Amino acid sequence: MRASVWTLPVVATVAAAPVFAASPQCQRQTVNWATYAPNSQQGATVTATGAQAAPISVTTNGTGNTTAANNLTARNTQQGAVTGYLALTLPAGTSQVQTVTFTFSSAVTDLRFSLLDIDSASSTTNGTTTVAYYDSVQPSTGFTFTRPTGSTVTGSGTAAAPFIQPNNNTPVDPSSNAGNVDLVYAGPTTSVSIRYAQQGGSNSTVPVIGISNLSFLRSGC
């Protein structure tokens, strides 16, 4: 007589996905600066793409020394080995500084973007050093950061240790990522700011850094 075979009953379980995960408004959204180039974004509001419903708008506003050529303009050229960025520039002079703020129409999480082409340049003639520019960048608090492979940027992005190059003569070609830092704001947040100044307090030319595309999720997704 064949012995009967007894097996445990199989119970199929399917983990229920959160309802909001499938929501059309919960897709990752992106502000692509190349889309708007070369229009000025000073005080302008742009709408992110990617969400199938209820896209979030982002308003850009600069305060301080904002009068330099091409400041707060969307560009479709290369900066920090990235094509398409928002340009921040400063007038030549002493104590030049500006703060650019991005304000979101709804709270966002997992906000990601890069600071591009933080660098420096100087020259010495007859023992006198002239600093052309020495970028110094301090994002508003609440971020984590990484340096991409090849980046020579130092600091931690605080007032005491802003993101800078290790000395006043480290120029970076626009095709290189040696001046880049990648930021993440876990959030939720409705605004972030970037303070752009010159280490040492003076610059003889008009410097420029870039801010890459902004990528984020609607809070609650």
Structure explained in plain terms:
There is one protein chain. The chain is an all-beta fold. The protein has a single domain (29-218), classed as Jelly Rolls. Helices cover 2% and strands 45% of the residues. The strands form two sheets. Strands 1, 2, 3, 4, 5, 7, 8, 9, 10, 11, 12, 14 and 15 form a 13-stranded antiparallel β-sheet that branches. A hairpin with a 2-residue loop joins strand 4 and strand 5. The radius of gyration is 23 Å and the shape is elongated. The chain starts with 28 loop residues before the first strand and ends with a strand. Mean pLDDT is 88; it is low at 1-20.
Give a brief description.
Keywords: Signal. It is built from one helix and 15 strands; from the N terminus they run βαββββββββββββββ.
What is the CATH fold-level name?
Jelly Rolls
Question: What radius of gyration results from the CA coordinates?
Answer: 23 Å
Report the sheet with the most strands, covering strand number, pairing sense and barrel closure: 13 strands, antiparallel
Main CATH class:
Mainly Beta
Q: What is the chain-wise order of helices and strands?
A: EHEEEEEEEEEEEEEE
Number of strands: 15
Structural class by sheet pairing and helices: mainly beta
Poorly predicted ranges: 1-20
Mean pLDDT: 88
* Overall number of structural domains: 1
Signal peptide: 1-21
Keywords: Signal
